[in-house]
Write a sequence for this structure.
C-alpha cells in the first residue's frame, strides 16, 4: 500500500510539474536538471533552507524530492511578495558570501507593498536601464553592481546615481544588488567565466570563510557552582544578540573549569565580567576562533583544463563565451599565439588583486592597470581583458534561468536590453 501511494504521488507530481514547465516554455533541457553535487557541497554552516538550493548543469542527475516540491510550491503559490523573492535570492547566493567592503542586498524598498510581477536583471543601473524598467512597469530591479555604494547625505538631481534612486522610489521599484555574493558562490559568475575555456579541475583562489557568530573562546575558573551560575547570567547580558555556548569540566582543587564562546562585539564586556570574578591565582585565557572554510565558495577561480588549448583558441573561445567581437591580449614573455594554455586563472570585473601572484598560463579578467599587466607579462603569463562589465554580463542570462524556475508563473524575469559596457572598440 505504501509503495502504491508513493507511486501515485510521484505520478501526480510529475504531471503537474511537466505542465508548469510547459507553460514556462523552458526549451533548454539543461534548465530542467539539478546538480546534486552542488547540493552536497553546500556547507552546514549556512541556513538550513539553502540545502534545497540547486544550480543547473547540462548533465542529467537525480532530482531531490524536497527540492522539486519546493520549486513546485513556488510555481503554484500565485502572487509573490518582495520579501519572498528576497528569500529565494538569498537561497541562490547568500549575502554573507559578499566581501566586507561591498554594499549588497535590498538597497531601495518601496513604502507601499505590492506583488512582484516583473523583475529586470541588469549589470549596471543606468538612465537607459531605468527607462526600460519604467516602460515595463517593473517591480524589482536586480542590479549586479550596487547603484548606491558610498554613504550619501542628500538626495538631489545633480548626481546621476541619486537621481536614479529618486526615480525608483517615485515609481515604487525595489532595487537589489548581489555583486560579490554572485562572484563568490559556487556556480556563480566566476565559475561561469572559467567555464568559457572548457571543463577542468576548478579550485577557488581566495577561499570564502563561514560567518560564525562566535569568534572568541574564553576559558576561566570559578570557585563554585553558584558563582558559575552568576557569571553565566552576567555573560548572557553582555551577548544578548547571540546564544552563548559554554562547557564545564569536572571540579578539582583549584575550582570549576569552564569555557564560553562569544562574538566580537561581546568580547570586551565578557572579559571585564570574568576578570571581576577571577582571582589572580586562577587561570584565564582568550582564544581566537578560526572561521571554517566554505568549499567551492570564494573569489576567483583556477582551472587545470581537461583539454589544453592554444592562446589563439583561448581567444576565440572567450569571444564566443562573452559574446564579443574583440578582446585585448597581452602575450607573456616568450609566449606566442600557438603557445599551450594548460591552466587559467579568472576573476570577473577588476581582478588583479585576486590574480596577483597566481602561477598560471593565462589570466582572464575584465580590467587590469598598465603596470599590473606588465608584471604578469614579465612572469610569462598571458593576459586577456574584456573590459569590466563584459566579464560579468553574460551571467545574467544564466541567472535568469536559475531564478525563473523558482518563482511562480505570474512573475516574469527579464534580462535588460539597454544594459551595456560604457566602453566599445571604435
Amino acid at each position: 500500500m505504501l509503495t502504491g501511494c508513493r507511486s501515485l504521488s510521484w505520478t501526480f507530481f510529475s504531471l503537474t510539474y511537466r505542465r508548469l514547465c510547459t507553460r514556462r516554455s523552458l526549451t533548454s533541457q539543461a534548465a530542467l536538471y539539478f546538480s546534486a553535487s552542488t547540493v552536497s557541497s553546500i556547507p552546514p554552516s549556512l541556513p538550513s533552507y539553502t540545502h534545497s538550493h540547486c544550480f543547473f548543469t547540462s548533465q542529467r542527475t537525480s532530482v531531490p524530492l524536497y527540492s522539486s516540491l519546493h520549486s513546485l510550491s513556488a510555481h503554484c503559490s500565485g502572487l509573490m511578495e518582495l520579501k519572498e523573492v528576497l528569500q529565494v535570492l538569498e537561497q541562490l547566493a547568500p549575502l554573507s558570501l559578499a566581501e566586507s567592503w561591498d554594499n549588497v542586498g535590498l538597497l531601495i524598498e518601496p513604502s507601499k507593498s505590492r506583488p512582484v510581477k516583473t523583475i529586470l536583471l541588469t549589470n549596471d543601473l543606468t538612465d537607459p536601464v531605468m527607462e526600460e524598467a519604467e516602460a515595463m512597469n517593473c517591480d524589482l530591479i536586480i542590479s549586479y553592481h550596487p547603484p548606491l555604494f558610498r554613504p550619501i547625505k542628500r538626495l538631489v538631481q545633480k548626481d546621476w546615481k541619486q537621481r536614479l534612486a529618486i526615480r525608483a522610489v517615485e515609481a515604487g521599484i525595489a532595487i537589489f544588488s548581489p555583486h560579490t555574493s554572485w562572484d563568490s558562490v559556487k556556480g556563480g559568475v566566476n565559475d561561469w567565466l572559467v567555464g568559457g575555456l572548457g571543463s577542468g579541475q576548478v579550485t577557488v583562489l581566495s577561499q570564502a570563510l563561514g560567518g560564525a557568530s562566535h569568534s572568541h573562546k574564553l576559558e576561566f575558573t570559578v570557585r563554585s557552582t553558584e558563582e558559575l551560575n552568576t557569571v553565566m547570567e552576567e555573560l548572557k547580558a553582555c551577548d544578548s544578540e547571540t546564544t552563548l555556548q559554554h562547557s564545564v569540566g569536572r571540579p578539582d582543587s583549584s575550582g570549576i573549569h569552564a569555557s564560553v564562546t562569544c562574538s566580537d562585539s561581546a568580547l570586551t564586556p565578557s572579559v571585564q565580567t570574568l576578570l571581576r570574578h577571577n582571582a589572580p591565582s586562577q587561570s584565564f585565557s582568550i582564544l581566537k576562533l578560526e572561521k571554517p572554510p566554505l568549499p567551492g565558495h570564494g573569489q576567483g577561480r583556477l582551472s587545470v583544463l581537461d583539454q589544453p588549448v592554444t592562446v589563439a583558441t583561448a581567444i576565440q573561445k572567450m569571444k564566443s563565451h562573452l559574446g564579443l567581437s574583440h578582446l585585448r591580449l597581452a602575450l607573456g614573455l616568450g609566449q606566442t599565439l600557438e603557445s599551450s594554455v594548460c591552466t587559467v586563472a579568472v576573476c570577473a570585473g577588476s581582478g588583479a588583486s585576486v590574480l596577483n601572484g597566481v602561477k598560471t598560463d593565462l589570466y582572464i579578467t575584465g580590467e587590469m592597470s598598465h603596470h599590473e599587466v606588465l608584471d604578469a607579462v614579465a612572469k610569462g603569463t598571458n593576459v586577456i581583458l574584456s573590459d569590466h562589465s563584459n566579464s560579468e554580463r553574460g551571467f545574467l542570462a544564466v541567472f535568469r534561468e536559475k531564478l525563473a524556475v523558482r518563482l511562480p508563473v505570474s512573475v516574469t524575469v527579464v534580462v535588460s536590453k539597454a544594459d551595456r559596457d560604457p566602453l566599445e572598440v571604435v
Notes: Residues 1-75 have pLDDT under 50 and may be disordered. The longest helix spans residues 2-24.
